[in-house]
Amino acid sequence: MSPTLVATTGLTFVASLFLSSTAMAQHAPQGDPQPPPPKGSNSAQPNPTFTVGAGGNGDITAGVEVPGGRSGVTGPVEVADEGPSCEYRRARGSDFPNLVPGDPGVAPGSSSSGPLTREVDGVTQEGWFRLCDGGALEFYWSAVVDAVDLVPDAAARARSRLPLPAPDISPPPDAGGIVNLGLWLAIADPGPTSARAGLSGAWAEATGTLTGFTVDFGNGDVITCPGLGVPIAAVQPDLDTADEGPCGYTYRASSPDDQPFQMTVTASYAITWTTSDGRSGTLDTSDRSITFDYDVDEIQTVGERG
User: Fold this and answer.
1) What Cα–Cα distance (Å) separates residue 14 from each residue in 6, 64, 91, 135?
2) Could you give the 3-state DSSP secondary structure of residue 239?
3) H-helix or E-strand containing 293?
4) Which stretch of DSSP H or E encloses residue 152?
5) Which residue of 163, 188, 215, 257 lies most exposed, with the fewest beta carbons within 10 A?
C-alpha cells in the first residue's frame, strides 16, 4: 500500500507505515534490476513510524522508527557476498501522494508515477527504499548506477580471495624425488570463487575458475598442466610405477647437496563477470603461486664381482 503523509510546518511529514518485505515485493516495479532473493526472511516491524522531511538545502530525508530497532537514513551501501541480506526497490512519486514539491526537481508532484529522481549539481539521483535483515525500512538518494561500473570492485574482491594451489605431487615434497623416477603432478580442486559489489539495487558479480597450472621445477624446466592434473592415487593406488603421470616430469639430475630445488606451482584462474541487468564478459586471468623445497637424490647401484 502507499503510505499516507500529512504535511506539517517546515515540510515535515509523519505518518504510520506498515511495509514488510512482502509489501515491498508487491510495490516493486517489474523489470527493475533487483538483487537475488535474500538469504533470510524479513518480518514486519510492529507499529513503525515513517518520517519524511525537507531540509534547508533541499534534500529530502526519510526514515522508519521502530521500537527496539534502529532508525535514521544512511547513504548507499555496498552489497557484497557477506553481511546482511537486503531488498531494494526504486521509490516512485506515487509512494508520496500528498507530498508537494518545495522546488522543481527536489520532490515529485502528486501526479508523478515514474521513478523518483532529482538533479544535484548536474548529477541525476534516484530515490530508493532498502530493507535489510533485522533492520528498518530506509529511504535514501543515490546517483544513477550503471551495473558495469561495479565490475572492477567485484573483480578486485574476487581476485583477492582466489586460493593458493594445493599441490598433490608424487613423490611428495617431504619425501623428495629420485633421479629418473617419474613425478605425477596434480592440485586439489579449489572450486569457483565469487564476489559481488552492488549499489542501489544494481550489482556486478565476478567469478574466478581454475583453468590449469604450471610447475617450475627449479632447474630451468617449466611445464603446464590443463585442469587439475592427475593424482597418482587415481590411476596407480599402490604407487607401483616408475613412469611419470599424464601431466608429469622426470628429473635427470639430482639437486645440489643441502640445496634442494625450489619448486613453484602456479594456478591460473579465468575471471568472468555478470551484472544485474544481464550483461556479462571476461577479464584478464589471475595467477596464484606457492614455492617449496624439493630435494632430488640419485640412487647409486653397487655391483658385486663373482
Assistant:
1) 6, 10, 17, 20
2) coil
3) strand 280-294
4) helix 151-160
5) 257
Q: What angle do CA 293, 297, 301 make, to 5 degrees?
A: 170
Find cell 532508525 and name the residue: 71
Q: Which residue has 607401483 as its cell numbers?
A: 240
- How far apart CA 230 and CA 217 sit, in angstroms, is 17
Please tell me the pTM assigned to this model: 0.60
pLDDT for 105? 47
Please determine, for residue 5, whether its predicted confidence score (pLDDT) is greater than 80: no
pLDDT digits (tens, 9 = 90+) for 26-59: 333 333 433 333 333 333 333 333 333 434 444 4
Query: Residue 264 burial by CB count (10 A; 0-12/13-18/19+): exposed, middle or buried?
Result: middle
* Residues ≥6 apart with Cβ < 8 Å to 222: 214, 215, 216
Could you identify the residue written with the cell 617419474? 182
* Cell 628429473 -> residue: 251
CA distances from 212 to 87, 158, 171, 191, 228 (A): 38, 18, 21, 12, 6
Q: How far apart are CA 112 and CA 128, in angstroms?
A: 15
Residue 269: closest CA among 198, 209, 187, 204: 209
